[in-house]
Each structure stands twice: as C-alpha cells, then as structure tokens.
C-alpha cells in the first residue's frame, strides 16, 4: 500500500508538472500571436497615426499651438503636441502647471500667473531651463517648459452648481476650516453682506481670487457690499452664507447654490456673485495694462 501510494504521488507530481508546462506553453503561444499582430512603426508612420487619432478626437476644445523646450519651438500640429515618456512630469508626476486666459488678443494676468508658477516650480525643486523674461516672451509668442494654447468653444456657464465635501479632509476634523476647491478658490457673502474669503494659507494662491478682491472694493464703495474679509471660515459658517461662489481662471466666478444637502441662501445665483462675474469679464476685456498683455 505504501509503495502504491508513493507511485501515485510520483505520478501526481509528474502529471502536475506536465500540466503546468502545457499551460505555460499555451499562454506563451497566445502572447506570441498577439505580439506578432502589433506592427513596428517608423517615425513617419507613427506620426501619421497620431494625426489620424487627433482628427478623430471630437470635443469643444481646440488645441491651437504648443511650445516645447524639447524641440525649442512652437507647433500648430496637434499630432506633434506630445511630451516625452521619460519626462518627470509624465512618469513621476513631478510637474507644476498654471492657466491664464486670452481675451480679445490679450493675456489676462500673465505676470501674476507667471510669478506663481515660478514659485511653484521652486517649491517643487524643478529647475527652470530659462529665466523669467525668456519664459514670458515664449508665452506671449505661443499663446524642460511646455506651453499650450487651447480654444474652448463652449460658452461661459454662469448657472449655479452643487458641490460636495471631499471624503479626504485636508486636515484632521478638529482643525478643519473651509479652504478651497480643486484648483480654485471659494468665497462667501454673509448675511451682513460681507465678502468672506479663506486666507491664502496652505491653499491655492489664486490670481483670479486676488483680482476679485480688488474689484470687489468697487462694490463696497457702491454700498452693495459692507466689507471684505479674509480669514478662517468654518463649514457651518459657509453653509449659512447668503451666497457661495467658486473662483478660478477656468470658472471665473461660478455661483454655488447647494453644498452637500444644504441649500445656499435662496437656492439661486446671488446678486453679488453675478456682479463679481460681470466685473471680471469687463476687466478681462478692458482692464489696465497690469492685467492685460497683448499677444501677436
């Protein structure tokens, strides 16, 4: 019995080894078949496929131009608007970005955004290949360094939106105060008609938000606002506000009508939010030279 058992065990081992070997061979054959169907492309063939891919991409945004320090120039061919796979921004996520709008042939708040991205790069320990004036000249001409110009064909949407609280807090709950949204700032209008914005402490130092604070001084002089305040805002205070808004280069000034399950104010776009949006739009079209840089 012992001998039979031993033979059976030996047979099982051999059978198992053969079975595993067969599986390995089968998998390899399938993989080899798949690989054999993948073409090896020349540079021109790869570029042609990139062009076809871009032609098939449909959306509301048009990519007009891109400057790359890799090839040291500007391209208007969307197929060439690529980043090397060994760029740290791609394979390590080590990069910084900023956004500035172009309105009526003028870059809006270029210098403010340029100063901020240079600060961000310094904090991220990214070595900039050019000095500030060279980068500024490139950005004006374009409208490792990448600069891309995008035309958004969708009209500006000023309708009120709903927002939710992130499940990942920026700070432990006992220290939490209202800070900012993703890549934008937040502001409130209190029942006393004060414009309240969280302090720029460990949050986005918003160029548009700072410009809104400057423009809002006109509403104080007109008596539409009582006062402008910068400081900590608790979640409870924010949800009790008459108005709430998100502020950023992309959204400009966007009213918030509901936060989680709490309706803000009367649930409609507030008059101060609308007034600030109008002021920003006017500033983008006819503001002072300090915020409008002409592009060729």
Automatic annotation (TrEMBL):
Q: Keyword set for this entry?
A: Pyridoxal phosphate
What's the protein name? Uncharacterized protein
Q: Name one GO molecular function term.
A: catalytic activity
Classification via Gene3D superfamilies: 3.30.470.10, D-amino Acid Aminotransferase, subunit A, domain 2
Q: Does the keyword Acetylation apply?
A: no
Similarity annotation = Belongs to the class-IV pyridoxal-phosphate-dependent aminotransferase family.
* Record organism: Salix udensis
The cofactor required is: pyridoxal 5'-phosphate
InterPro entries with a match to the protein in the record: Aminotrans_IV, Aminotransferase-like, BCAT-like_C, BCAT-like_N, Class-IV_PLP-Dep_Aminotrnsfr
The keyword Cell membrane is annotated on this UniProt entry: no
Q: Which GO terms describe its biological process?
A: amino acid biosynthetic process; carboxylic acid biosynthetic process
